[in-house]
Design brief:
Number of helices: 5
Order of helices and strands: HHEEHHH
Strand content: 5-15%
Helix content: 25-40%
Radius of gyration: 25 Å
Structural class: mainly alpha
Distance between the termini: 83 Å
Largest sheet: 2 strands, antiparallel
Number of strands: 2
Strand order of the largest sheet: 1-2
């Protein structure tokens, strides 16, 4: 014998659909959606443009790091791509290292030898 699935109560179904619609409206009022309406779809650091499916790679950065500070004029936000946003939240030491500046490179402990020492001379 096969069990039949009970049909949802029409009132409960209507309530669920109303909740879904209300949640959609609330999401659209969220700061990401507001920022995407206010600002051009361009990363504020690297200048890369976003559209269509790539728009999901554009994030909202809170300039003062306070995610509760969401003024309607967007003055605490800037749009950053995923990579620039990750870079923004790294420590200064990490930024220096990955940016390739001399301050971050070579400042840590060494292996005691240069792995590629003399390699350039071999190609001459």
């Amino acid at each position: 014998m096969r069990l039949r699935r009970p049909q949802p109560d029409p009132e409960k179904r209507a309530q669920i659909l109303a909740d879904v619609e209300r949640n959609r409206v609330n999401r659209e009022k969220g700061y990401r959606e507001q920022a995407l309406r206010l600002f051009p779809h361009v990363c504020g650091r690297c200048g890369r443009e976003f559209s269509g499916a790539q728009l999901r790679e554009l994030t909202v950065h809170h300039k003062d790091s306070n995610h509760m500070n969401n003024p309607p004029d967007g003055s605490n936000w800037e749009l950053l791509c995923l990579y620039c946003h990750d870079n923004e939240h790294q420590t200064p030491e990490q930024r220096d290292h990955y940016d390739g500046s001399s301050k971050g490179l070579g400042s840590g402990p060494t292996l005691g030898y240069e792995a590629f020492e003399g390699l350039k001379d071999r190609f001459k």
